[in-house]
Structure formats: C-alpha cells, structure tokens
Design goal:
With about 150 residues, the chain is mainly beta. Helix content is about 5%, strand content about 30%. The protein has a single domain, classed as Deoxyuridine triphosphatase (dUTPase) (Deoxyuridine 5'-Triphosphate Nucleotidohydrolase, Chain A). The strands form 4 sheets. The protein has a 4-stranded antiparallel beta sheet with strand order 2-10-6-7. Strands 1-5 form a two-stranded antiparallel ribbon. The termini are far apart.
Length: about 150
C-alpha cells in the first residue's frame, strides 16, 4: 500500500521500520526541543502524511524516550485522520515533562530532544465503520460487573 508523504524537513529521513513487519514506523524530530518540568511541548516531525481513505495513523512515543528521559505522551496515542494532510498539517508529537522523576526525585531540566532523533512511531490502522444501536434499558448487556475498578486488585 502506498502512503502519500511530504517532507517539510528535507534532511530528515522518511519514517523507517527497524524490522520488516514491525507495527510502527519510526519518526524523527525535525528540530531540537527542550523541556521544562511539567511543560507540554510539540515535537515537529517535519512530515505531512495522508492515511489512505478508510484508515488513520496512530502516533505513539517510543518507549526508550519514556524510560530514559521520563517524558510522557499526554494524548497517547495521537490520532491523525485521513483529511489531516494539508499544507499546514505537519505531524507533531505531543510530549510532557514530569514535575518529578528519576532516582533523585526531580526531572532533569536539561532534557532535550535532538533534531534527527527517533522520537515516535507512526502506525497505520483501518477505521471501523459502526452503527450505534441505542438501547432504552441500561441492563441491555445482562448482569453488571460492578462498575469501574470492580475486578479488585
């Protein structure tokens, strides 16, 4: 399947797979981004891509960025619909620095994502076409399990 992509940042690589058949394609930071404790930053990826009609992209943080830097993706995963592919629709990865993290209990304010660094994974998924079947009885599914957190610890 061919996916249309435009590189805003021509010296950044196209998304790559570490191994053939992997679910995600690694994406690269198009510029350096620094983080302050608690702040949310958008990491530009320097690409505009169009998921084929009937598909969408999921954008996820690479696990190594989370583990080694303590950064999280507050909107995990990011969803990129088919029509988000215009000239102003650069794909960006939303990341947040924690207030406290690490061995000594504080986030390292020197955390920087470097241009060209693999920061996320782009996953192409098929949309599910559904039709909602509204019910009049809240017990339509049978016996309740007891609500959120009901299965215990």
């Amino acid at each position: 399947m061919k996916v249309k992509i435009y590189r805003i940042c021509k010296d950044n690589p196209l998304p790559t797979q570490a191994n053939s058949g992997d679910a995600g394609w690694d994406v690269y930071a198009a510029e350096d981004v620094s983080f302050s404790p608690g702040e949310i930053e958008l990491v530009p990826l320097g690409i505009i891509a169009q998921a084929p009609k009937g598909y969408h992209f999921k954008l996820c943080i690479r696990s190594s960025i989370a583990k080694k830097r303590g950064l999280i993706q507050p909107n995990a995963p990011g969803i990129i619909d088919h029509l988000y592919s215009g000239k102003k629709d650069e794909i960006k990865l939303m990341l947040q620095a924690p207030m406290k993290f690490g061995k000594w209990g504080y986030f390292d304010p020197e955390t920087i994502i470097k241009k060209g660094e693999r920061v996320g994974q782009l996953i192409l998924e098929k949309n599910n076409d559904i039709e909602w079947d509204e019910q009049d009885d809240p017990n339509f599914a049978g016996k309740s399990r007891g609500g959120f957190g009901s299965t215990g610890v």
